[in-house]
Amino acid sequence: MASSSSLSSSALSSDELQAAAEELLDAPAEQVLAWVERRFGARAAIASSFGAEDMVLIDLARQHAPSVRLFTLDTGRLPPETYEVMEVVRRRYGVDIETFFPDRARVEALESSKGYFSFKQSIEERKACCALRKVEPLGRALAGREAWVTGMRRDQSVTRTEVRAVEADTGHGLIKVNPLARWGSREVWAYIQAHGVPYNALHDRGYPSIGCAPCTRAVKPYEEERAGRWWWESPDNKECGLHVHR
Fold this sequence. Notes:
One of its GO terms (molecular function) is 4 iron, 4 sulfur cluster binding. The active site is at residue 240. The protein has 246 residues and is an alpha/beta fold. It has one domain (4-237): 3-Layer(aba) Sandwich (Rossmann fold), CATH 3.40.50.620. The protein is 37% helix and 9% strand. The chain contains seven helices and six strands. It has helices at 14-23, 29-39, 52-64, 80-93, 104-114, 123-142, 185-195; strands at 44-47, 69-73, 98-100, 147-149, 166-169, 174-177. A six-stranded mixed beta sheet has the order 3-2-1-4-6-5. It is globular and about 50 Å long. The N and C termini lie close together (10 Å).
């Protein structure tokens, strides 16, 4: 666990973080979200890419953590189906979606110097694109917040098996909360079906994990959920830099 000096001055101390992490380790998502509401309220925000688990999280949060804000990172290369479900969320739940874009000048410079598919040249080039389009905007999105909430699950890929319900994000100096950490894909879809939760139309076309359009494909039935993300790379490298586990 990180020391309290690694976190926002108004966030949890290391002892409080340890206690919360242990108390909520296997707690239901509703309980985790209720804790976020009590402890942080509007000082916390859900980071959403509007995939299936994010839609479940938004639905649960409207019930158990209504003060928590909602934001997204618009990379400029999202599929149209993602924008469509974003609009459905805005209207159905009556929430404002705070949208953060990459720096225009940096995007223009990247595309002018390296073209439109530099991310396929190497892992370094792909991570550079992700850093520009996702990581830097995330830093701005989290500025001034004390906690962020994600839809990350342990079963999504080999890079996420250590995800906990509550953990320190030392890179951003705040608390990271993953209420669905112990959920499986079946639980996610059972909830969606039982509660009539809207979802991205690409899920019905074989896309269990959806990111930027050029970096996402449909998967085979035997492949893991995130196999369609940056499919030309090794599974061990399939993170964009938003979620770093130390």
